[in-house]
Amino acid sequence: MKSQDVRKQFLDFFASKGHLIVPSAPIVLKDDPTLMFNNSGMAQFKEYFLGNATPKSNRIADTQKCLRVSGKHNDLEDVGFDTYHHTMFEMLGNWSFGDYFKKEAINWAWELLTEVYKIPKENLYVSVFEGNPEENVPFDQEAWDIWKGLIDEDRIILGNKKDNFWEMGDQGPCGPCSEIHVDLRPEEDKLKVSGKSLVNNDHPQVVEIWNNVFMEFNRKADGSLEKLPAQHVDTGMGFERLCMALQGKTSNYDTDVFTPLIEKVEQITGLKYTTNDVILNDSEESQEQNKTNIAIRVVVDHVRAVAFAIADGQLPSNTGAGYVIRRILRRAIRYGFTFLNIKEPFINQLVAVLADQMGEFFPEIKSQQQLVTNVIREEEASFLRTLDQGLQLLENVVAETKGPTVSGTKAFELYDTFGFPIDLTALILREKGFELDEAGFNVAMQAQKARSRAASEVSTEDWSVLIPGNVETFVGYDQSESDVKITRIRKIDSKKDGVLYQIVLDNTPFYPEGGGQVGDKGTLVSANETIEIIDTKKENNLILHFAKKLPENVNASFVAKVNQDLRSLSSRNHSATHLMHQALRSILGTHVEQKGSLVNPNYLRFDFSHFAKMTETELQQVEDFVNARIQEQLPLIERRNIPVQQALEEGAMALFGEKYGDNVRAIKFGKSMELCGGIHVKNTAEIWHFKIVSEGAVAAGIRRIEAITSDAVKAHFASYENTLNEVKNALKNPQDILKAVHSMQEENAKLAKQIEALVKNKVKILKAGLTAEIEEINGIQFLAKQVDLNPEGAKDLAYELGNLGNNVFLVLATADEEKPMLTCYISKELVADKNLNAGQVVRELGKFIQGGGGGQPFFATAGGKNTAGIQQALEKAIEFVK
């Protein structure tokens, strides 16, 4: 059975059971500050389980793209070493929100697996929660009794809290679960060892395929459990593992989910992948084949995660979710570099295979194929350059190492600062006859992780509910002030921000951060006090107002007042992004798509797809286009709660990676129309003026424009006027400033030529004098001398003196403008015969001037900051030739 059919049969089955089939949410989460990525099927439904929103149907089924790089069973560094864990995977799921419960969920799971998919019943085992007296949670007798009617009792396993009690996090909905495991071993293996003993023991052919979670409880901050008002079902079935079972394979990578990608890697590398059916032994040849297999699994697994994340709007970067994506891709690159012997970008070539394979069900990978390919190719090229740089740095570390063991702290610096992989470091060191101090590396790594954990630790108390029920409404599109009551509060404490309070109101004019726009600030005012609101965010469909203190009387009536000055500036910048998006598509072409934005009171930032640096003419055209729309004084046409399909048919722009509901809000200024939930001006005239301040690359095929409007433009022009006046005063107030500047440039060019000629003449004079000072040591013509030249002059002098013979060793020092510099020249014949290296010389001598440097074996320089150390460096130079 093909994987496409496996997916379709699952969805068709649950549609027949009255479930609404919904599309996968983006793999990158933009509206949940507690998660970077969708890491489970239930993530997009959290607000329903928490009771903060009402689902479209009480029964839902879907397949969800998930990404996990750490967790209960998996860590990024383990993927590839086994055959059934992945970074990105699909989670098939069916959900009940207060509708059916254990009886239906278990019976339908059994019906689908045994009657539709026809998995032999004798290959299946199930687990039931054994209970936990310490937490006052009983044995799941109901699930046991249901299973007893479907399967032999000796195939029902009691599971502990670790395996059979599911929790959303430290707090929140949770409950017992019932897992279904499949035994895919050959019959002779089953006769030797019972599959029951291998369940949850990391056996590659006895694996969990389905988990039915029965949400009955709410975990409070103190660890205690309370019954939920409604019971829910949350199930997840691993698509890749299910395909393995249905296609008669013993490895996920042997299914048609992965084989097209593996075949492409084989074609590129000329290497072969051996399936799980081929038994490898302990021979050297088998060990090499195993390394190849692991590397290919790493590459084909990781390209899926990276490609779908980029398609959903997350570019690789050095922070946050972008860093996770970059880290996954770099792991794939280094496995290709080390074990597949590929030194050029190649992973990008797999995107076309992925698009053909999955584009029908996940159209985003098809529509974003070119962008994804470009970004991955550029990331590969960049990291391969980093690897080359790291190899040179590692050479330096080895050269400085005394003894057979390289410092783990030094190796960690290479890893942490330059991204040089530790496994590659260890491999290269072994080849050179060195050992790595792994314990020292691990100590440095754990210390960094501890610092990172401490910086991000947050403790969150339970909600104190003052007014029960889900009654919150947002009124901020029409009002900047509103009479409000507080419905719930909770305290949070983090290393970063200290103690803060989250306040939820029955209605609020405060806009929560979203769609690129920052959250509103303002105040809560009662008859007796004023509470400052420092930020507003949305989490699980609740609008959270952040304050440094709580009101003395939380039950009082308040007036919620948005800081209108800040909101007005943000709204001008937000409306300007819409006009700029229209301008870019009009001037550069309709291939331009928004890939990210930031809108705050000070400026706007807009990322978009485009293949080349914008010219000055194009930037001016965009400015002119936007300012023309401002001059036209276009009124805001806002349409709320219109069907999403109708909005798209009318020409509204939708953004990739965004999750839209059935009804949307459309914002229109003239011919610009976009789906948007942000705050906007009532008329484009309020923007006053639009000015681009920078344009540059973010990633391959992605450009970024930063721009300003209104008050920021006024300040920008005022600053330029002040600068112009200062230049004018410095030039003695000439009538024609531009002519005066050109005249100064011409004069400087003439003087520079004169100085260059003088330096060349000085070099010749110094050469004549220094030739007599050269002394012969062990057959080497040696000179170490400080000279009164700039660094460029010292280089010329070194090459002039180097022409005196084929056995010259020079160290020249300069202190031009009190900046010490060492220049080392060694005849190429000496480099070859005596194993001398100018780069190594300047690195060692550079320590005396508190600096460092490098270069080629025959010529290198080092800069520093301690001129007093020059003499000592020159005195030490002779030791290299003795």
| General form | globular
What is the C-alpha radius of gyration, as a whole number of Å?
33 Å
Q: What does the largest sheet look like?
A: 9 strands, mixed
Low-confidence stretches: 70-74
Helix content: 25-40%
Average pLDDT metric: 90
Instruction: Estimate what percentage of residues fall within beta strands.
Output: 15-25%
Descriptive report:
The protein is an alpha+beta fold. The chain is built from 25 helices and 35 strands. The strands form 7 sheets. Strands 1, 2, 3, 4, 5, 6, 7, 8 and 9 form a 9-stranded mixed sheet that branches. Strands 12, 13, 15, 16, 17, 19, 20, 21 and 22 form a 9-stranded antiparallel sheet that branches. A 6-stranded mixed sheet has the order 30-31-32-33-35-34, sandwiched between helices. α3 packs parallel to α4. The N and C termini lie far apart (76 Å).
